[in-house]
Amino acid sequence: MAAAREELQKDLEEVKELLTKATRKRLRDVLMTEKQKLELEIKNQPPPKPKDVAEEEKSSLGGYTVKINNYGWDQSDKFIKIYISLNGVQKLPAENVQVNFTERSFDLLVKNLNGKNYTMTFNNLLKPISVEGSSRKIKTDTVLVMCRKKREEKWECLTQVEKESKEKEKAAYDTSDPSEGLMNLLKKMYAEGDDEMKRTINKAWVESREKQSKGDIPMDI
């Protein structure tokens, strides 16, 4: 739910920015309609839960299993380092903190910490890691997962999904041409909109084409 709310907020900010650049009345009407629609969707979203973890559920290990969402990460030439804060983890027996590595993923399981179990899973890592060279360290209130890089190169993010998401956003919106940004947003609105929205966009498109053919506007929208 939090991710959906965040995406809606990003769309709203993009629409607001494009509104400041749009000059044609029909186009501004389309953007205003989308702005109102997004504001209503955001208003109807449930508020985010004030938790450091996403959810808790019963586990066969006893107690609850908590899925860890909060972490920090860093990298050196040889390692990707993921830092997970867990109060008192240094007091557990070493065997209660387990990490299983594959070439493109790892799973962390911390058992029976203050009556709860904690898990974290990273799938589809950006680049391959060395299973044999990877490990975990237990520090005061922190678990450090160290993924040994197979190649000593900089990672721009942790997972392939993050990379693809950034590339899609850049392709859709990161443009120095305001008219291109408007076109990308209109295409997105048309693809996702209802029949009324599609009719409105089609009408704006036809009118802009007619005016362009008469030399009224220099920009193709």
Description:
There is one protein chain. The protein is 40% helix and 29% strand. The protein is built from 5 helices and 9 strands; from the N terminus they run H-H-E-E-E-E-E-E-E-E-E-H-H-H. It has helices at residues 2-21, 25-44, 160-173, 178-192, 195-213, and strands at 53-58, 64-68, 72-75, 79-85, 97-102, 105-113, 116-122, 129-139, 142-149. It has a 5-stranded mixed beta sheet, with no helix packed on it. Strands 3-4-9-8 form a 4-stranded antiparallel beta sheet, with no helix packed on it. Strand 3 and strand 4 form a beta hairpin. Helix 1 (2-21) packs antiparallel against helix 2 (25-44). The longest helix is centred in the first third of the chain and has 20 residues, at 2-21.
Mean pLDDT rating: 81
Q: Tell me the number of strands.
A: 9
Distance between the termini: 34 Å
- By secondary-structure content and strand pairing, the structural class works out as alpha+beta
Helical fraction: 25-40%
Discrete helix count? 5
For the biggest sheet, the summary is:
5 strands, mixed
Query: What is the rounded Rg?
Result: 24 Å
The low-confidence runs, each spanning 5 or more residues with pLDDT under 50, are 51-60, 217-221
Strand arrangement across the biggest beta sheet = 1-2-7-6-5
Would you list the SSEs in sequence order as H and E? HHEEEEEEEEEHHH
The proportion of residues in beta strands is: 25-35%
